[in-house]
Amino acid sequence: MLVSTLILNGLVMGAIYALIGVGLSLIFGVLEIVNFAHGQIYTLGALALALLVGHFGFGFLPAAFVSALGVASFGYLLYVLFLRHIRKGEFERGIILTLGIGIVVQNALIHFYGATPQIVDTEFSFKDISFLELRVEMIKAIAVGFAIVSITTLHLVLTRTRFGMAIRALSQNREAALVVGMRPTIIAGHAVVIGTALAGLAGAVLAPVFTVHPLMGAPILFKAFAIVIIGGLGHLPGAVVASLIIGVSESLAGGLGSASLQDAAVFLVMIAMLQFRPMGLFGKGVRI
């Protein structure tokens, strides 16, 4: 029963991690930029939900939706002001730029919110639901619902709509996309908005699960990198599979070992993947 509970909890957390990993992978797949500000974008979603619920009296569901929209708006500004000016082949410039943006955002959040951790209580806190004789916190189950709906919707958009096919075409061959009349800057901007919205949504739905503070994005950023490396850079289904692997590994390590082993388990999985499959489970060659 213990192992079953740990696996279920791991799958639940993995589904939520997938929001972060898919968003990071989408941005890389289209722009070939490793967004080192992704952790702070996740933090913005969490702090936005804490503000809406704690100070404005929003319910959890509308607060999560509004938080994701607000973070998406920030993502659009991030693209217009900075990311769209990075050219192909300027990989290092992208890393330095997004790292600097992340540091600025983090310190701005510390200035305005303070560094004291906050606990977010919602109408779903302290409630459980039963699943196959196992119990899951209701807030986590709702977060999984958000993750499933969001990722499924993104998959349908990418595979069934002209807009989604344009994103995939741009990620696979930018020059060919230009030849057939696509507008890469507009398409890439939409990809950044979607990727940041997913990260903001992840922060919002996890805010009631963990304590909220401006430094919470750093550990989640490294987990997101582990996810995209294990799944294959730019491969969205790979990011989902890798997220579930990370979630289960983390849960088993913490439950059967100790809490200090949780983060170690994540990176042991990543190191093993780099040793045996350096391109990840699905490889960089298979893109969005």
Q: What's the quick description here?
A:
73% of the residues lie in helices and 3% in strands.
Give the SSE layout.
Layout: H1 2-31, H2 38-56, H3 60-81, H4 91-113, E1 128-131, E2 134-137, H5 138-160, H6 162-172, H7 174-179, H8 184-206, H9 217-231, H10 236-256, H11 261-276
Antiparallel strand pairs: 1-2
Describe the 3D structure.
This protein is mainly α and 288 residues long. 73% of the residues lie in helices and 3% in strands. It has a two-stranded antiparallel sheet with strand order 1-2. Strand 1 (128-131) and strand 2 (134-137) form a beta hairpin. The mean pLDDT is 90. The radius of gyration is 18 Å and the shape is globular. Helix 1 (2-31) crosses helix 9 and helix 1 runs antiparallel to helix 10. It has a single domain (2-276), classed as ABC transporter involved in vitamin B12 uptake, BtuC, CATH 1.10.3470. This is Branched-chain amino acid ABC transporter permease. Belongs to the binding-protein-dependent transport system permease family. LivHM subfamily. Keywords: Amino-acid transport, Cell membrane, Membrane, Transmembrane, Transmembrane helix, Transport. InterPro entries: ABC_transp_permease, BCAA_transport_permease. Its main location: membrane.
